[in-house]
Amino acid sequence: MKKFFLGMENELLIIKKAPEGYAYFSCLEGKHPTCIVVDPQNENVIYCGTDKDGLLKSEDGGKSWENIGNKTSLEIESKTITALAINPFKKINGNSVIYVGTEPSMLYYSNDKGETWQEFTGIQSLPSKKVGVFRHAQQLITCVLLQRVILMKII
């Protein structure tokens, strides 16, 4: 089934192809979505970064959402999520690695579906824009910093 995700200023629209055309529903009203990624292992698992409400996760295709990433003081510090990426080719215990970029500039990753997070250190003073994963070079991620692309090798 084809799905489209539209992050609007104050809500997230999820549009699905239906036999009679397209159907949509609205969710996350007032949450200001900034980035969205769908788990390639399960299309019902959706991660949504927001401007002021941190990282949200849905396990039912967007019907209900849980705030993840800041359950403890050792998790994602910022509530402004600017970038999300999932590396479907790098798996740890069967889970794809999830990357989260924030502002102020921090980069985190989770290898347990967002239950716990680790921080990549050394880039805190750089303003980040986007995070991505190279399909054929699973050990590399990118981070766009003020029109420049930074490659990071993950071992």
UniProtKB/TrEMBL annotation:
InterPro entries: WD40/YVTN_repeat-like_dom_sf (IPR015943), Xyloglucanase_GH74 (IPR052025). It comes from the Bacteria. Transmembrane segments: none annotated. It comes from Tetragenococcus osmophilus. This is Sortilin N-terminal domain-containing protein. GO terms for biological process: xyloglucan metabolic process.
